[in-house]
Design a protein that fits this description.
five-stranded antiparallel beta sheet; single chain; two-stranded antiparallel sheet
Length: about 450
């Protein structure tokens, strides 16, 4: 699944992107990110909100959940392992998203989820009732539990508050951030273990959170959850919110629901404790759905834009072909030879009128570079070639007349008009011109001179 999302974003970058070779990053362009797909339906939002109110009411106002405390062997690994894997996986997808969008939202959310996942690993290893962790102080594990919630809430809050602000990062910088998240998690674990005698225990018998734990969790993770929910809701309700922004407050709400229920009924192995453990991977699933919805929308955008480009290309080719036909018809209708050549007088185009006037086929003009010199009358050849070469050398348009020898040995008077095409540096790039048959005018002029 990660490969699919990454490949779609990579395809988008390859279709319409610009690359910074120095930073090794690709930024997607020509995609209207502000016109995102639809977010979660309002009906779903209302149902989740009502479910949360009912849950809070049951936990706060009744004792229905009091009898439901049942110990499941290895409950924490069962609930936290999916959370750890999901946090690392979804965080990776956020970084793949950042590779294309280069925004703060993707980076902050990806880094925070990685940190939350690593703190989830610490929470698993800090459990006191497993054979591999005998002797661990039972009051340590809740620190990592609340810190994993805190990391997730802060990531969502930053992603919603800072939104699509640009944050260009290279692949090397992303690796450094990943290493920093790992290092920070290790520092947190070591710090908790090192100052454990100074830290108050967060658990008291019979497996109940202490008042300090409830207060600390409410003031840290709880307030961060409210910040994430408020920032995400504000961003999702804006006109420029994309689909991921619409799903972030839902994830924050689910996490806040699980955390608050546990703080209101703070017993280990109680039903709110299980719900709090389950809420974290469920919230990550909501973010994953947002990423998938964005991927599907982006894929549709790519297909739509490719179709538009294909249609435009077909239209452009049709217009170019029509213009070429109009130009060809105009050229062939002229009573003159239209030609194009390079600076060495090798012809790249000669109109069909050349065969009618001089009798040489167009294919011969294009294939035989010596025909240009041979078609000039021997008596005029040297002077005419000089005029042609001077026109090219000086880069000036010229016009002159000379005698040509037709394929049937007839003498044809031609008026040559040469237009010099130069490049940006003033060098001759192409030569274009006309050769007009002026034999009748020349004959009339000779007859007039003889009559006089």
């Amino acid at each position: 699944m990660g490969r699919t999302i990454g490949s779609t974003w990579s395809a988008a970058a390859a279709t319409s992107s610009r690359t910074d070779p120095e930073r090794g990053m690709t930024m997607l362009r020509n995609v209207d990110w502000t016109r995102g797909p639809e977010g979660p339906r309002s009906v779903l939002t209302v149902l989740l909100a009502l479910s949360g109110l009912v849950y809070f009411g049951v936990v706060t106002l009744t004792s229905v959940l009091a009898p439901y405390r049942f110990a499941i062997p290895y409950a924490v690994p069962i609930f936290d392992t999916p959370f750890v894997l999901a946090a690392i996986g979804v965080g990776y997808l956020c970084w793949e998203r950042h590779r294309v969008r280069q925004d703060v939202r993707s980076a902050s959310l990806g880094g925070a989820l990685w940190l939350a996942g690593l703190l989830g690993v610490a929470h698993i290893l800090a459990q006191p009732d497993y054979s591999s962790t005998l002797g661990v102080n039972p009051g340590i594990a809740p620190y990592f539990f609340f810190l994993s919630y805190l990391a997730g809430f802060v990531g969502v809050a930053l992603a919603a508050s800072l939104a699509d602000r640009p944050l260009p990062l290279s692949d090397r910088a992303r690796l450094r951030i990943a290493a920093a998240a790992l290092g920070l998690s290790v520092v947190i674990v070591v710090a908790v273990w090192a100052i454990r005698p100074l830290l108050p225990s967060l658990v008291m018998k019979p497996g109940r959170l202490t008042p300090f734990a409830i207060l600390a969790g409410a003031l840290s993770a709880g307030l961060a959850g409210v910040w994430a929910l408020a920032a995400g809701r504000k961003r999702a309700s804006g006109r420029d919110g994309d689909v991921l922004a619409a799903f972030l407050p839902l994830a924050a709400f689910i996490w806040l629901l699980g955390l608050t229920g546990f703080l209101l009924w703070p017993f280990r192995y109680g039903l709110p404790w299980y719900i709090a453990g389950l809420a974290r991977p469920v919230g990550l699933g909501v973010i994953l759905v947002g990423l998938m919805r964005e991927q599907i929308w982006l894929y549709r955008e790519i297909i739509s834009k490719n179709r538009d480009l294909t249609a435009r290309e077909v239209m452009a080719r049709a217009e170019a072909a029509a213009s070429e036909r109009r130009f060809a018809g105009l050229v062939q209708d002229l009573d003159a030879v239209v030609w194009e050549a390079d600076a060495t007088w090798r012809f790249s185009f000669v109109s069909d009128r050349a065969e009618a006037i001089l009798g040489y086929p167009v294919a011969l003009w294009l294939a035989d570079p010596q025909l240009f010199e041979r078609h000039i009358h021997p008596d005029d050849r040297e002077g005419t070639l000089t005029l042609f070469r001077e026109a090219a050398a000086r880069g000036r348009n010229s016009s002159f007349e000379y005698r040509a020898v037709a394929a049937d040995a007839r003498t044809v008077w031609l008026r040559a008009m040469v237009h010099v095409v130069q490049d940006a540096h003033g060098r001759v790039e192409k030569l274009r011109g006309l050769m007009v048959d002026v034999s009748e005018r020349r004959q009339l002029e000779d007859e007039l001179r003889q009559a006089q």
